[in-house]
C-alpha cells in the first residue's frame, strides 16, 4: 500500500447548518480515520516533530500506540508531557509547531498530529479515564497558582505530581481562564472538554478557589507572608482589551472582543433567556482585526443572528495572523473579508447607537519591525461600511492589578511581568510567572510550556529552601 501524502479529512458539520448553532464544528476522527492517519507516521528516529512542541510530547510514541490500537498506552504517553490533550488537540496551531517539522510536510501534508491527539484524549474521556488522587506528605510545601488559564493549569498539574499542595486562585466564577471566556463553544466545548480536564486536576488534589481576585481578595505578599504559601506562580494572562483610539468608540453597539466573547462563552449569552446574560447583536456587524480572536468574534456574531458579518483588516489576506483553518471555516460560513481597510471613526445617531464604520483603503508599503509590509493609507479612498455593531479585536494586554499590588515585582513598559524565559523566575524571591502575562498574547500551548518550565524551577527553588 502506497503512503498517502494527504491528511485524512476531518469530519465537520455542514457550513450552512453550523453557522446557526454553537455545537462543535469539527466532529473528530472515527477509529478508522485515526488508524489510517496513524499509518502515515514514518516513526522517524530523530522525531523532528517534537522540536516544534512547546511541551515536548513524544509524538511518534503516542502515534505508534494509536496504530497498534493501544489507546490506554497512547493517552499515558501524551500525559507524560501534556495535562490538557483534548484542549490542545483542538486549539493548538499545529501547522506552525509540531506539524511544521513533519518529514511528510516536505512533499505533501504533515501527519495530522493534532487530530490524533484530540482523538486519543476524547477516547480516554469517553471511556471514563481514572485519575489517582495523590497522597501528600504531612510537611508538603504549599504553592499558590494565580490564574487558572493554560499556564496555571499546566504548572498546577506538574507541581501536584511532584508532591506539592497546590491551590489555584481564579478571579472568575469558573476555572479555565481564556479556555472558558475567550474560545467559543463551537471550537472548544466547555463542560464536555475544558471542565472535564480541569476536574482531572482536582482529582490529583489541586484545590481551586474561584471568585478570588488576587490583588484584592489577597495580595501576592499576603499569600507568601500570611497564608503560608512557600512559592507563587502568576499566570493571569492578557485579558485587558486594546482599542483603536478613534472617534465614536464609546457608542452603544461597540464591543471589545473580550467583552463580547466573555458574555457568550463564560456567561452563556447565546442561551438567553435560559441563561441570565443578554447580548445585543445587530443585523450588520464589523469585526476589526485579523487574528483568531477576530475570527471567533465574527463567527459568534453570525451564530447570534447577524445577517452580514465583515472582518475589517488593514493588511492583505497573506498577512492575516489567524490560523488558516479558522479563516477557511469563516469563509465557508459566509463571513465577508474587507481587507486592506482601516477604520477611522465609528459613526452613530443622535440616540448614541452605531450606524456605520468610516474606513479608508490601505496599500502595503515597506516591511516594518514585525517583518510584515506596513499598511499605508490611500489618499481620497474613504468610505463608510453600513453596520450597527462593531467588535474590536486588535489585541489585549496585561491587567495591572497583580503587578501594582506586589512589592518588588518588575514589569516592562507594556506592563508585562519580567520573568526568566527558562525558569519563570521574577525579580521577587519565591514568585514565578509565565504565559501571556509575561510574553503578551500568544498561544495556549506556549503558555502551557511556560507553566511546565516554571514548575521545574519552583520544585528546585523549594527543595533548596527546605534544605536550608
Give a short summary of the structure.
The chain has 16 helices and 16 strands.
Task: Note down, in words, how this protein is organized.
- This protein has 468 residues and is α/β, with parallel strands linked by helices.
- The chain has 16 helices and 16 strands.
- It has helices at 15-18, 31-39, 59-67, 71-79, 85-91, 113-127, 150-161, 178-181, 190-204, 220-225, 257-265, 292-303, 324-332, 401-404, 436-439, 444-467; strands at 142-146, 165-169, 207-209, 231-234, 240-241, 254-256, 284-288, 308-312, 336-338, 341-348, 354-367, 373-377, 383-385, 389-392, 396-397, 431-433.
- It has a 5-stranded parallel beta sheet with strand order 3-2-1-4-16.
- Helix 2 packs across helix 3 (59-67) and helix 4 crosses helix 6.
- The radius of gyration is 23 Å and the shape is globular.
- The mean pLDDT is 95.
Q: Topology, pairings included?
A:
Blueprint lengths: L14 H4 L12 H9 L19 H9 L3 H9 L5 H7 L21 H15 L14 E5 L3 H12 L3 E5 L8 H4 L8 H15 L2 E3 L10 H6 L5 E4 L5 E2 L12 E3 H9 L18 E5 L3 H12 L4 E5 L11 H9 L3 E3 L2 E8 L5 E14 L5 E5 L5 E3 L3 E4 L3 E2 L3 H4 L26 E3 L2 H4 L4 H24 L1
Parallel strand pairs: 1-2, 1-4, 2-3, 4-16, 6-14, 7-8, 7-14, 8-9
Antiparallel strand pairs: 5-15, 10-11, 11-12, 11-13
Helix content: 25-40%
Percentage of residues in strands: 15-25%
Distance between the termini: 63 Å
Average pLDDT taken over every residue: 95
Unreliable stretches: none
> How would a crystallographer describe the biggest sheet?
5 strands, parallel
Q: How many helices in DSSP terms?
A: 16
Radius of gyration: 23 Å
User: Could you give the count of β-strands?
Assistant: 16
What is the overall shape?
globular
Amino acid at each position: 500500500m502506497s503512503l498517502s501524502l494527504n491528511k485524512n479529512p476531518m469530519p465537520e458539520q455542514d457550513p450552512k447548518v453550523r453557522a446557526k448553532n454553537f455545537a462543535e464544528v469539527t466532529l473528530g476522527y472515527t477509529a478508522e480515520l485515526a488508524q489510517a492517519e496513524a499509518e502515515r507516521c514514518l516513526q522517524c528516529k530523530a522525531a523532528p516533530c517534537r522540536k516544534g512542541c512547546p511541551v515536548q510530547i513524544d509524538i511518534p510514541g503516542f502515534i505508534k500506540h494509536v496504530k497498534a490500537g493501544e489507546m490506554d498506552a497512547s493517552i499515558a504517553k501524551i500525559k507524560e508531557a501534556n495535562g490538557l490533550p483534548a484542549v490542545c488537540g483542538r486549539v493548538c496551531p499545529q501547522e506552525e509547531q509540531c506539524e511544521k517539522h513533519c518529514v511528510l510536510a516536505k512533499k505533501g501534508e504533515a501527519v495530522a498530529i493534532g487530530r490524533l491527539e484530540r482523538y486519543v484524549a476524547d477516547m480516554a474521556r469517553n471511556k471514563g479515564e481514572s485519575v489517582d488522587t495523590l497522597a501528600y506528605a504531612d510537611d508538603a510545601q504549599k504553592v499558590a497558582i494565580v490564574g487558572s488559564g493554560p499556564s496555571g493549569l499546566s504548572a498546577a498539574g506538574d507541581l501536584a505530581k511532584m508532591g506539592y499542595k497546590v491551590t489555584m486562585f481564579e478571579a472568575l466564577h469558573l476555572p479555565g481562564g481564556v479556555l472558558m471566556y475567550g474560545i467559543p463553544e463551537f471550537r472548544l466545548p466547555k463542560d464536555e472538554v475544558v471542565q472535564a480536564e480541569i476536574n482531572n486536576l482536582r482529582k490529583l488534589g489541586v484545590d481551586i478557589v474561584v471568585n478570588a481576585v488576587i490583588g484584592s481578595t489577597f495580595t501576592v505578599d499576603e499569600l507568601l507572608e500570611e497564608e503560608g504559601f512557600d512559592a507563587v506562580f502568576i499566570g493571569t494572562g492578557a485579558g485587558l482589551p486594546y482599542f483603536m483610539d478613534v472617534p465614536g468608540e464609546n457608542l452603544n453597539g461597540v464591543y471589545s472582543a473580550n467583552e463580547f466573547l466573555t458574555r457568550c462563552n463564560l456567561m452563556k449569552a447565546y442561551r438567553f433567556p435560559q441563561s441570565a446574560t443578554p447580548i445585543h447583536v445587530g443585523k450588520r456587524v464589523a469585526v476589526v482585526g485579523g487574528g483568531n480572536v477576530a475570527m471567533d468574534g465574527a463567527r459568534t456574531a453570525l451564530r447570534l443572528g447577524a445577517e452580514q458579518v465583515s472582518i475589517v483588516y488593514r493588511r492583505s489576506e497573506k498577512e492575516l495572523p489567524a490560523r488558516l483553518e479558522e479563516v477557511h471555516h469563516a469563509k465557508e460560513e459566509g463571513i465577508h473579508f474587507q481587507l486592506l481597510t482601516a477604520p477611522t471613526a465609528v459613526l452613530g445617531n443622535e440616540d448614541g447607537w452605531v450606524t456605520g464604520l468610516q474606513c479608508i483603503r490601505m496599500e502595503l508599503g515597506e516591511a516594518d519591525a514585525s517583518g510584515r509590509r506596513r499598511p499605508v493609507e490611500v489618499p481620497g479612498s474613504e468610505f463608510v461600511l453600513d453596520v450597527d455593531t462593531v467588535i474590536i479585536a486588535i489585541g489585549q494586554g496585561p491587567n495591572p492589578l497583580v503587578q501594582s499590588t506586589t512589592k518588588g515585582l518588575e514589569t516592562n513598559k507594556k506592563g508585562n511581568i519580567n520573568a526568566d524565559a527558562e525558569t519563570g523566575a521574577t525579580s521577587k524571591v519565591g514568585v514565578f510567572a509565565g504565559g501571556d502575562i509575561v510574553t503578551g498574547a500568544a498561544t495556549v500551548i506556549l503558555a502551557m510550556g511556560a507553566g511546565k518550565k516554571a514548575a521545574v524551577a519552583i520544585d528546585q527553588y523549594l527543595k533548596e529552601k527546605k534544605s536550608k
